[in-house]
Amino acid sequence: MVRNNTVLFDACRDWPPPFSESLPSLSSRTLPRRSRVSAIGQLVTTTDQRRVVFQSMIECHSALHLLADPEVETLIDQPPAITYTRGGRQHLHTFDFLAVLRSGQRVAVACKASIRAELKDLAGFYRSIAHQIPRSFADRIVIFTELSFSQADIYNVGLLHDCRRDVPGSSDAAIAQYVGRLYGRTTIASLVEATGLGADAFRAAIRAIGDRTLLPIQAGRWDYDTRVAPPAETEVAA
Questions:
Q1: Which fold, 9-148?
Q2: 184-187: which pairs have CB atoms within 8 A and are 24 or more residues apart?
């Protein structure tokens, strides 16, 4: 686009730093770009900068929940379909996600609205075909519905995902230093004040919670008033 002889955008030019192109999705099938009945979208992982596609907000929240779990090493969206036999006929079924854990276990994930999961007896369906699912594909199956997450859960994993987009730096080192000397409980606000690094320290504290080097000791949304403690301290009753 040219206005007053000034180039505002040139698709042929490289994007300047810090932009970097994300890796393509691992999805086994291409989703439509738009839908009248689905909330189709994508997010980018903060580990390998790879796109993860979703077809509903339940899938979106499930993906963020799984990406926030330090036990999950790789999240595969729309993994290859599995084949099962029912009523004498062969069928194909595609799970919404496949989570590969650091332990080597593989978890097939289905996301469905609770009313549809109940009406279709989704749990019963998976029990009936579980013996036909190769162990090389998955060791177990998990079903997520909108009832699987509280509003605080959804907020927290979204906040963590956003904070993990930052490049770790001096604020992370400062939070780690104060947490290493911490005995008992404190608030995120106190940690931020101690570092003198403001919002950067707050975001570093959220990353520390995500890494489990700092643990919240109360339910609810993570904010400056959230009480936290080192992992060893959480074993003592509040």
A1: Trna Endonuclease; Chain: A, domain 1 (3.40.1350)
A2: 184/229, 184/233, 185/217, 185/227, 185/228, 185/229, 185/233, 185/238, 186/227, 186/228, 186/229, 187/224, 187/225, 187/226, 187/227, 187/228
In this prediction, residue 15 carries a pLDDT of: 52
As a CATH number, domain 166-235 is 1.10.10.10
Residues 113 and 145: beta-carbon distance below 8 Å: yes
CA atoms within 13 A on the CB side of 56: 14
**What pLDDT is stored for residue 1 in this prediction?**
40
pLDDT at 135: 92
Alpha-helical regions (H) of the chain: 57-68, 114-119, 122-129, 151-163, 170-180, 188-195, 199-210
Mean pLDDT, 10 residues at a time, the chain of 238 residues: 47 56 71 59 90 94 96 95 93 96 97 96 96 95 97 98 94 95 94 96 98 95 97 58
Nearest in space to 109 (alpha carbons), one of 139, 85, 73: 139
Which residues lie closer than 8 Å to 10 by C-beta, 6 or more apart? none
Q: How confident is the model at residue 14, as a pLDDT?
A: 55
d(CA 8, CA 2): 6
Domain locations in the chain? Answer: 9-148, 166-235
